[in-house]
Input
Amino acid sequence: MTSITTLFGIRYPIIQAGMVWCSGWKLASAVSNAGGLGIIGAGSMSPEVLREHIQKCKLATNKPFAVNIPLLYAKVEEVISIIVEEKVGIVFTSAGNPALWTSKFKSHGIVVVHVVANTKFAIKAAESGVDAIVAEGFEAGGHNGREETTTMCLVPMIKAIVSIPVIAAGGIGSGKAMLAAMALGADAVQIGSAFAVAKESSAHLNFKERIISSREGDTKLRLKKLVPVRLLKNDFSDAVSQAETNGASTEDLLKLLGRSRAKLGMFEGDLTEGELEIGQVSAMLKEIKPAAEILHEIWKEFLMEKDRLGKLTW
Output
């Protein structure tokens, strides 16, 4: 047991990230039923679609699950009202100031976790009263920190300055990586890319197959003038790179980005013009499997490696 398994009421200290266009009720319930913590990603859902996913998740599992909310979401107040009404027990917040909403969540008995990519925001999150922090390193897919701090550096730095549990994220897709994160002081791990290719993930099959065929160096951090995001290489990411090299303004980049690029790529399967958000660990993923199998393989490898290291002699 760790402080996180006790806080969430789960068996394994393994959390599935709340990824846009990948993390619906099917994936969240499958991870929770397997003993981890599944998360519904609200960032790609309208409020009423989110309500539907929460209700379906409740029917599919009697285990704890969470909802991830980007706090800069245009309809965040409506989303929060739905979470309160549906009595969701755990919320992960990101992309915004947790001080604005943490007290409201906690007044309804909701456990609050905030995602950060640097020590400055870790301190602010702890001061806002959140129950735990996700320390997300540079390796992670999707939106990322401008500091480009790796998970191996970020986790111990944050662990040293806060007294609440810390969840490591970014570049973790195996039991070995999980053990390394725990050795750095993490109380649990959050895993995105490995679950993005799960059978229950709502990502398009084209996207999943592109992930498992990717190689080292196939992801790059782009859109640094807007909100940094790690993307798989394709025509769209190449166009972004060229625009940035040519000194494109924020307005030019917004025009290039257009609308619904992430949906186009990740949910609709356009591998040319879509935005394909995924982490560096994608180069290590080779197969589409059920979420439960992914979780249990990670846990088994974690225990095996822990045992191997415990037998080392010096």
